[in-house]
Amino acid sequence: MSPSSYTEVASVSPNVTKKNVYDFFAFCGAIKHIDIVTEGHAEIVDAAKKEEHHEDVKEKLKRKEFEIFVGGLDKDATEDDLRKVFSEVGNVTDVRLMMNPQTKKNKGFAFLRFATVEQAKRAFTELKNPLVLP
């Protein structure tokens, strides 16, 4: 498993099962692997892997500066609809439209990444209530 796909969740009930975790995080997308480590049975993690993970987390936080959250979307809105509206204020490099796996419709929110921090800030300030039509 690559560090970029690793997420750690701590302080969970000892009654939590893998199915509980899959169900709870299903809205995030496909889950490839889950390890549940209970207190007293944790394996020692290689220090280099931990450091690599921390560097990955720092990089992700830095990339978040280029990203904005867009909520209240019509359930039929598409990535192309979002790109069309938000490209007016900057270069949209990535659109993550959160989808419901059962209905195949979007969940009403998305994350958009821009080429620069300035473009993301501009989108946030200039497009407070954009109209995204499907």
UniProtKB/TrEMBL annotation:
<feature type="domain" description="RRM">
    <location>
        <begin position="66"/>
        <end position="134"/>
    </location>
</feature>
<protein>
    <submittedName>
        <fullName>Nucleolin-like</fullName>
    </submittedName>
</protein>
<dbReference type="GO" id="GO:0003723">
    <property type="term" value="F:RNA binding"/>
</dbReference>
<dbReference type="Pfam" id="PF00076">
    <property type="entry name" value="RRM_1"/>
</dbReference>
<keyword id="KW-0694">RNA-binding</keyword>
<dbReference type="InterPro" id="IPR012677">
    <property type="entry name" value="Nucleotide-bd_a/b_plait_sf"/>
</dbReference>
<dbReference type="InterPro" id="IPR000504">
    <property type="entry name" value="RRM_dom"/>
</dbReference>
<dbReference type="InterPro" id="IPR035979">
    <property type="entry name" value="RBD_domain_sf"/>
</dbReference>
